[in-house]
Amino acid sequence: MSSETLSGNRLARIRVPASTSNLGAAFDAVGLALQLYLRLSVRRLDTEPSRLEYVGEDDHLIPTDESNLIWRVMAQVAEEHKAELPPFALRVENEIPITKGLGSSASACLGGTAAADFLCSLGLQPEDMLRTAAALEGHPDNVAPALYGGLVASISGERILCSRSLFPAEWTVVAVTPAFELETRRARSVLPHEIPHADAVFNVQRAAFLMSQIVLGRSDGLREAMADRLHQPYRSELLPGLREILEMEDCPGLLGVALSGAGSTVIALAEANAAAIGAAIRRIFARHDLPSQVRLLKADNEGMVFEA
To answer: Which range of residues forms the domain containing residue 288?
Structure first.
């Protein structure tokens, strides 16, 4: 912890990582924190009005008034704890693309929860923040790794259960984001209400093997372990090029490929040749007239950082 004074008021700095979820087979069960960040600087003001400054990714999409997601979360968390949200100055610096499958809303919900905890002196513990932010987000898949860091398997319910593991530092997560917005609601709407028993077994086998191999730091078999029958085949109809990317030939260093969350970002795990793998995925999107951005990321094994 560090402390700083600005205009007589304490300043809190909050850093929340991006995340990718599912990793193919582990649908709605697993998330991985990434070294791509949402940074908040917040301090209490003596008088109204509150103000928010935003810089970073997709700034044209982000309001800076009370309709801003982080602001709304702060107000809701304060209200739920019967506290009054004081006037504040909030600066947001964001590296995470918005609504592209890299956990931007989960990071915002978690960052807003932490900011409200600071401003209102709520004394929330990590498990309280997880429960609050997951309820706001709708599920813990992205919130849990953003909070705890690393690779996190979670069970949602009245009580959220999480199991965290370190992700191999030597592996690279190649995140390729096309200029295409795939809304989570739409991506969910194409999923069937019932699935064949064989498809359920297919995914359970691979998700279990995937987690075991990653925890042990072993790369063999990961391509098959990231195969999926529960969501990616259906979402391939929505995102041009996805089917080809999932079926792309093996190349040196490629460990596995998956849709990141509900998309539209695609991730590949690589133990070598990460730039070449990213370029190959980018070329597939380009064949469908979709420009894309390649990010070569490492896992964040630290999670949310709070300094005040």
So the answer is: 172-297
CATH of the domain at 208: 3.30.70.890
Mean pLDDT, consecutive 10-residue stretches, the chain (308 aa), reads 44 98 96 98 95 95 95 97 96 96 96 98 96 94 97 93 96 97 85 95 98 95 97 94 95 96 96 97 97 98 96
Name the pTM for this structure. 0.93
**CA dist 130 → 58, 105, 106, 149 (Å):** 26, 14, 10, 12
**Amino acid at residue number 70:** I
